[in-house]
Amino acid sequence: MLSNDARLALETATETYSQQIDEAGRYLTSRGITKEAAQKHRLGFVASPMIGHEEMIGRLSIPYVTPAGVVEMRFRSIDPNTNPKYLSRVGAKSHMYNVNAFNERSEHIAICEGEMDAIVASSICGIPAVGVPGAQTWQASYRRAFQDYRKVFILADGDAAGQEMAKKVAHAIDVAVVVTMPEGMDVNDVFMAEGPEGLRERIGL
After folding, report:
1. Mean of pLDDT over the chain
2. Hey, what's the torsion of the CAs at 18, 86, 126, 177, to 10 degrees?
3. Four-residue CA torsion sign, 192, 195, 199, 202
4. Of 7, 17, 126, 150, which is most buried by a Cβ count within 10 Å?
5. Each residue's pLDDT tens digit, 151-162
6. Whole-number Å distance between alpha carbons of 43 and 130
7. What is residue 198's predicted lDDT score, i.e. its pLDDT?
8. Longest dimension (CA), the chain
């Protein structure tokens, strides 16, 4: 469990970086993410880093916002030539992303492979969605969060890693429906190519 100091530090970082989000405007536009969606998910940009975040300069900050506040933060490169693509803070623990989607009134929910896909699905395409960054981060306890849904769509990336995650999650959830994106594409790619209607049609909504 996070200490009060850790929670305060995450909240302060979230607020600080969100004020710098305009510097990531071109990147967000390239992913089809509107300013409204960025603000809803409290995305930010690390221009002036907090202490301990110096290596995150130039990255998008992605806070894990819950009803109880910010519980974690990851940082994504917006330069395709920068590796690794994602970095986490020291001592970071694994969480589901966008758990506020559980508060939406819906008989279905989607599980995406990563934060950006969850943002696109939920806030751009109108499909309540959470994010799990890879099969290795799935925890057995997560299954309880989905037990009251009629359908749980697993929106799998069109690659081997996506298939691995889909297989692992589908095994844990009885009402899971695997929807695999075209080869080499993820949810964001499909949205950019086909729009919200294309993604929803693939899912059957």
Report:
1. 95
2. -160
3. negative
4. 17
5. 999 999 999 999
6. 16
7. 97
8. 46
The identity of residue 71, as a single letter, is: V
The angle at the Cα of 125, spanning 187 to 12, to the nearest 5 degrees, equals: 85
Q: How many residues does the chain have?
A: 205
In the chain, % helix, strand, coil (3-state, to 5) comes to 45, 20, 35
Domains and CATH numbers, the chain: 4-88 (3.90.980.10), 99-203 (3.40.1360.10)
Q: CA 75 to CA 60: how far, in whole Å?
A: 5
Structure-block tokens of residue 140: 């057995």
Looking at beta carbons, which pairs linking 37-40 to residues 24 or more positions away fall under 8 Å? 37/119, 37/123, 37/124, 40/123
Q: Give the pLDDT score at 132.
A: 94
Instruction: List strand residue ranges (DSSP E) for 120-198, in order.
Output: 129-131, 151-156, 176-180
CA-based R_g, the chain, Å: 16
- Give pLDDT tens digits for 67-117: 999 999 999 999 989 999 999 988 888 899 999 999 999 999 999 999 999
Tell whether the model's pLDDT for residue 42 goes beyond 90.
yes
